[in-house]
Amino acid sequence: MDTPPHLNMYEEYRQLAADIRAAQSRMAEVRAEASSDDDLITAVVGSSGELVELRLDSRIYRAPDSAQLAADITDVVHRAAELARQETFSILSGYLPPDATPETADLRADPMLHELDRQLTGEGR
User: Fold this and answer.
1) pLDDT of amino acid 29
2) In sequence order, what DSSP letters do the residues of 51-71 get, joined into one string?
3) Torsion angle defined by CA atoms of residues 16, 21, 24 and 29, in that order, rounded to the nearest 10 degrees
4) Residue (of 9, 88, 98, 106) closest to 49 by Cα position
5) CA separation for the pair 81, 107 (Å, rounded)
6) For the CA atoms of the chain, what is the radius of gyration?
7) Distance between CA atoms of 31 and 45, rounded to whole angstroms?
8) For 52, phi and psi rounded to 5 degrees?
């Protein structure tokens, strides 16, 4: 006996949602690290680019230029965030259109899950 098409579709949606939730768990574990060229500043960020850890070598205090220090820290955090974006993109790339890039894709899984749930329950019809 054949399975009704709507049950197959339901199972496909359910499996896709489970796969995306598994990807979400992997994304939660993403940690990207970048350091300044002189290795005096190191930033670690999570998958969304949020700063998780900042390490400053005590030698940074030898040059008391706070504006330059702030610019250097900002640069290192941005580099770490770009690495995190690349890693997150690689986790989600199988669920994105073929022409998606890390710069153009929405790398949050929640909107995908919301849309799957909406389609599964028939909202918006």
Assistant:
1) 95
2) EEEEEE-GGGGGS--HHHHHH
3) -130
4) 88
5) 13
6) 21
7) 6
8) -105, -35
Structure tokens at 20: 């995306």
Q: What is the per-residue pLDDT for 53?
A: 98
Q: Which regions of the chain does DSSP assign to beta strands (E)? A: 32-35, 41-45, 51-56
pLDDT at residue 101 in the model: 84
Residue type at 57 in one-letter notation: D
* β-strand partners of 51: 45
Which residues does the chain have with pLDDT short of 50? 125
Torsion angle of alpha carbons 35, 39, 40, 44, nearest 10°?
A: 20
| Overall residue count recorded for the chain in this entry | 125
pTM over 0.85: no
